Description:
The chain is α/β, with parallel strands linked by helices. The protein is built from 13 helices and 13 strands. The chain has helices at about 15-25, 60, 75-85, 110-120, 135-140, 145, 165-190, 195-205, 240-250, 290-295, 310-315, 320, 350-370; strands at about 5-10, 30-35, 55, 65-70, 90-95, 105-110, 125-130, 150-160, 260-265, 275-280, 300-305, 325-335, 340-350. A seven-stranded parallel β-sheet has the order 3-2-1-4-5-7-6. A six-stranded mixed β-sheet has the order 9-8-10-13-12-11. The protein binds L-homoserine. L-homoserine binds next to loops.
Amino acid sequence: xxxxxxxxxxxxxxxxxxxxxxxxxxxxxxxxxxxxxxxxxxxxxxxxxxxxxxxxxxxxxxxxxxxxxxxxxxxxxxxxxxxxxxxxxxxxxxxxxxxxxxxxxxxxxxxxxxxxxxxxxxxxxxxxxxxxxxxxxxxxxxxxxxxxxxxxxxxxxxxxxxxxxxxxxxxxxxxxxxxxxxxxxxxxxxxxxxxxxxxxxxxxxxxxxxxxxxxxxxxxxxxxxxxxxxxxxxxxxxxxxxxxxxxxxxxxxxxxxxxxxxxxxxxxxxxxxxxxxxxxxxxxxxxxxxxxxxxxxxxxxxxxxxxxxxxxxxxxxxxxxxxxxxxxxxxxxxxxxxxxxxxxxxxxxxxxxxxxxxxxxxxxxxxxxx
Length: 370
Ligand code: HSE
């Protein structure tokens, strides 16, 4: 019999991308899907799947073998404990971060941690949580080096897209771009206008109330925001903390065998691709060609971009990678700072491999396991 899968949060951005991918991979042929809603109970479910069930109805949820949720952390915190308290033994697959670091949860990124997932399934773990987008995308890009045990430590300087902050930040970014252009359009139309005047007008516009900043807090268009997620009070953002904590958990590394990972996370005006400038200290001073081969062979999604100007500009770009499962990896260079130290630049779609795809694949693992 096909497993019954309750899908929650399918209308949001990650949920929509997830549904598209599930349709593209014909996942629905292998499951009996029931769609839940927090706001439109009784409404029409997508894909002709009857009517929407109540996402807060514990009995209805408990009738599912698997719950797949992109509804967000507040929903998880409210519903997951109640469902477990009611004795539900099904599998909970979640895009939100709330349960990630729990001892009885596995962070899923199967191209790198299939053995951790399988061990979890064999030992009765029932919560499978998608990782932070930045972490998953970095790990897929460096998979060949990580799996060969060649990574001593990593620093990640990130360039994170607006989508990571949610759909409203994406909309606001474009509106900010429009307002900035509108304020300078007359000057731009005049080839003889003074660039200093254009700059002054632009700057005054970015600092004024003309720009909506309800969701980005400060302007993102024409600027950047060097802080993502909560302030942990120790000089670190929660996004930066996740780099080390989640990567090591995904790899199943013991406390005394951790790979140190430090980050500085920055929001930029890209739509949905997160980029990262990585410095990696390898455990061996390998030849560059060997390093490139290992990276390129890391998994089928890595696209190694030659470290050349034209190729880097065109292929190692959030614009190019947007909407694809490709993980572009380039700017691979040995650094003069120390033997075995390299630079790497990665670009990946934050909604696909950064969010929806690991969840979709986890569901498929469950389905194939029977
Ligand atoms: N926290 C990430 C960001 C997205 O703000 O870009 C979710 O993993």
